[in-house]
Write a structure and sequence with these properties.
alpha/beta, globular, binds guanosine-5'-triphosphate, binds magnesium ion, binds zinc ion
Length: 305
């Protein structure tokens, strides 16, 4: 029989759940050659387009198509990037306005993680129902809209703002990423109550989540979209991004850097730097520039190691 195309929906323990284009869902394992590649880092991940064929009463993945996009969590120094999902149309960076309250620096880290994968994320500020969340929402919304991000303010609890998020998530394939306990699974349950995803109680002691979601899978929403509910990660460590590459992860720098006196300006200490000039004039928000300096320094340390 000829090979059948499909999309990897779930991975774990060497078993791949593949949704075939003809509507069937099968469990498959990797063919020998692909297994070899997997061991050297080229893993098969959710969202991968694959060709599978039946062998006996089992299925094997014969081939993986080239990826359109890759969402990667960069590895620690010296390690390779860990690809979380392939062929996503959209990535939503989800944080909470309260419990746990997001800081601009945390948001910047997550945005940079996605930008370094070559994707431009959308920001979701959840838990808008909590006390004084709206003031925080107003500040973060104006900050991030001013540097070119689309921002949704939502509450999985009360349904506030869920219309816009639902419209955005119900077509194509996307992923929700963000710290544990911010309400990623809750947002998906609010969009599609039939999912009944496990959600967690916040730890009383730390006020943070406890990693309720484990493993990655692409979930089909009743409204049509495919979405990856990923386990929370907040302390996004060091990436295999070069120090020079960090500036490319700040979209508001792009239009400015031609105005720097030096080509390859680091925007740290050079004279006549357009980014630093914009900072003084308020065009680049101070908190964004501070995040840039921190992340650039981390990237430099990683490179030196
Ligand atoms: N007040 C309020 N609480 C919320 C909201 N959304 C989620 N929560 C609560 O926040 C806690 C964590 O929610 P989850 O949906 O499990 O968070 P998560 O981001 O999926 O966490 P991980 O799976 O650990 O990454 C739960 O107790 C939810 O009930 C919201 O909009 N408002
Ligand atoms: Mg979850
Ligand atoms: Zn500069």
């Amino acid at each position: 029989m000829t090979a059948v195309p499909g999309t990897v929906r779930e991975t774990g323990g060497g078993v791949y759940v593949v949704a075939l284009d003809d509507g069937r869902s099968v469990e498959a394992s990797l063919r020998g050659r692909l297994k070899q590649e997997a061991r050297t880092g080229g893993r098969v991940v959710i969202g991968d387009r694959v060709l599978v064929s039946p062998s006996g009463n089992a299925w094997t993945i014969d081939e993986v198509e080239a990826r359109r996009t890759e969402l990667a969590r960069r590895g620690r120094a010296g390690r390779t990037a860990k690809v979380l999902a392939a062929n996503l149309d959209r990535v939503f960076v989800v944080v909470a306005l309260r419990e746990p309250a997001a800081t601009p620096h945390l948001v910047d880290r997550l945005l940079v993680l996605v930008e370094s994968s070559g994707m431009h994320p959308t920001l979701v500020l959840n838990k808008a129902d909590l006390a004084s969340a709206l003031e925080a929402a107003a500040a973060l919304t104006s900050l991030y809209e001013s540097v070119g991000y689309e921002v949704f303010v939502a509450s999985a609890e009360t349904g506030t703002g869920m219309r816009a998020l639902t419209d955005a998530i119900c077509s194509g394939s996307s992923a929700l990423i963000g710290p544990s306990g911010v309400g990623k699974s809750s947002l998906l349950n609010a969009i599609d109550p039939g999912l009944a995803l496990r959600t967690g109680l916040l730890s009383k002691k730390t006020g943070t989540g406890r990693h309720t979601t484990v493993g990655s899978r692409l979930i089909e929403l009743g409204c049509g979209g495919l979405v990856a509910d990923t386990p929370g990660f907040g302390d996004v460590g060091l990436w295999s991004v070069s120090p020079e590459g960090v500036a490319d992860c700040f979209p508001e720098f792009a239009s400015l850097r031609d105005g720097c006196r030096f080509r390859g300006c680091s925007h740290v200490h050079e004279p006549d730097c357009a980014v630093r000039a914009a900072l003084d004039e308020g065009g680049v928000p101070r908190s964004r520039y501070e995040s840039y300096l921190t992340l650039r320094a981390e990237a430099t340390e990683t490179e030196d190691r």
